[in-house]
Specification:
Oligomer: single chain
Protein name: Class I SAM-dependent methyltransferase
Organism: Rhizobium paknamense
Strand order of the largest sheet: 3-2-1-4-5-7-6-8
Largest sheet: 8 strands, mixed
Low-confidence stretches: none
InterPro entries: SAM-dependent_MTases_sf
Bound molecules: S-adenosylmethionine
Radius of gyration: 16 Å
Number of helices: 6
Number of domains: 1
CATH class: Alpha Beta
Structural class: alpha/beta
CATH architecture: 3-Layer(aba) Sandwich
Mean pLDDT: 84
Shape: globular
Number of strands: 8
CATH superfamily: Vaccinia Virus protein VP39
CATH topology: Rossmann fold
Distance between the termini: 12 Å
Strand content: 25-35%
Order of helices and strands: HHEEHEEHEHHEEE
């Protein structure tokens, strides 16, 4: 996507950031078109790391944005540093009892298929996503296919996709290919409700 096609409302450092991170731009440009980011929605982003500051300005700013990470981020003013409404310090690969049905939208990019998690850890991660999502909520899960294929403990991204399908109804999915025509990543947009699947290759 070219810088000039960025929405006019993305100004200043927000515009600068997204125009120099085109790989990440895709997901944040497309996502709000699929997931309804209406006013007052409770959004949870898992492990946003360096770009957390730039998420809220491009979504509906009246959403409440929580960031969850295994890193403690002990800064006294962490919410301002990260530009989020709430910071949650948790490991998504162990069973979590809190935050049941709390979020309308959950975004999980670059965590699940990015680290050397075991299959059981991935199961627990997905169970946590499922229980944290509201009954009518939507969860966007990105599988980094090429990164996952290199992992030692659990490298089977097709099995991971099946594990997602066992728990969620996939409303739509996007597959992005690299310049060699190989799958680079798959994003699934998941709900708890059953409807027809829309598959898109981009
Ligand atoms: C690769 S980074 C950033 C990913 C970012 N969402 C992206 O797409 O570029 C992954 C983040 O996930 C966090 N993380 C790693 N393992 C985690 C876990 N088990 N539970 C929660 N967060 C975790 C890391 O601390 C880091 O901030």
């Amino acid at each position: 996507m070219k810088t000039k096609s960025l929405p006019k409302t993305w100004n200043g450092d927000v515009r600068n950031f997204w125009s120099t991170h085109s790989d990440r731009l895709y997901q944040f440009y497309v996502l709000p078109k699929i997931v309804p980011f209406g006013a007052g929605k409770k959004v949870l982003e898992i492990g946003a790391e360096y770009y957390s500051r730039y998420i809220k300005p491009i979504y509906n700013s009246s959403c409440s944005l929580s960031l969850l990470d295994i890193k403690p981020y002990s800064h006294p003013d962490i919410k301002n540093v990260l530009n989020v409404d709430r910071f949650i310090h948790l490991d998504m690969t162990v069973a979590i009892a809190d935050y049941a049905e709390e979020f309308d939208i959950i975004i999980s990019f670059g965590v699940l298929s990015h680290y050397n998690f075991s299959e059981l850890q991935c199961e627990l991660y997905l169970d946590n996503l499922l229980q944290m999502l509201k009954p009518c909520g939507m969860c966007a899960i990105k599988i980094d296919v090429q990164i996952m294929e290199k992992l030692e403990k659990f490298s089977n991204w097709e099995k991971l996709l099946l594990m997602i399908k066992e728990r969620f109804s996939i409303q739509a999915s996007d597959t992005l290919y690299d310049s060699m025509g190989l799958k680079q990543f798959i994003i699934t947009y998941c709900s708890k409700e059953k409807t027809d699947v829309v598959d898109r290759n981009i």
